[in-house]
Specification:
With 197 residues, the protein is an alpha+beta fold. Helices cover 35% and strands 16% of the residues. The chain starts with a helix and ends with a helix.
Length: 197
């Protein structure tokens, strides 16, 4: 655990978002590059912490992941989220991220969310997040992937969330606009029409 996490989070002034995009076949190389990029970011003088999957980690945590790769080990627990929760029958576990490696998630009740676009800066200014370069064709790939993950689940857990139909204030909408017209809606319909249980 990190006892000073709350104090470090209070000192937060700005953030950066780190992602490595590329071809699906080069997933392992992208994972390694992501780990190295995170380690470099965490070595910066004013790096206070890393927020991911609802948890704040110490910067040295990511530096350790990069060191693992020097020994030909893979920091898989950096790429896949392993979580625990308590239920009536005892302690349970779940994963998030296995699907990227072509494997099933460990728990059925994790539901994918389809996001056509995102720009939170109108509401959050410099603290907002922005997803760039969304197009109906990239959205098609995103929808296919989300729908494919549901095929591995029990019928009562075959759920996909759409975020959002008309959240114009966050650039997150399916409704027609001047740039793409009805393309996002048409793309979603085409992919849903192909989807069979």
């Amino acid at each position: 655990m990190w006892p000073e996490a709350v104090e470090a989070a209070k000192a937060h002034k700005a953030h950066i978002m780190v992602a490595v995009l590329g071809e699906e076949e080069k997933l392992l190389e992208r994972g390694k590059l992501f780990t190295k990029a995170m380690a470099v970011c965490c070595k910066q003088k004013y790096a206070t912490g890393v927020y991911t999957s609802g948890v704040v980690f110490e910067p040295r945590f990511y530096e350790g992941f990069a060191d693992m790769m020097k020994e030909d080990e893979l920091p898989i627990f950096n790429w896949i989220w392993f979580g625990l929760y308590r239920r009536e029958g005892g302690l349970n576990s779940y994963t998030y991220g296995m699907d990227v490696f072509g494997k099933e998630e460990m728990e059925d009740n994790i539901y994918p969310t389809i996001i056509p676009n995102w720009d939170h800066t109108p509401r959050s200014g410099f603290n907002g997040y922005v997803l760039n370069n969304s197009t109906p064709e990239l959205f098609r790939f995103h929808v296919r992937k989300a729908l494919a993950t549901t095929l591995q689940k029990r019928a009562d857990n075959m759920i996909v969330f759409l975020k959002s139909w008309n959240e114009w204030g966050e650039g997150n909408y399916m409704e027609p606009d001047l740039k793409y017209g009805k393309k996002y809606i048409e793309t979603l319909k085409q992919e849903l029409d192909k989807f069979t249980l």
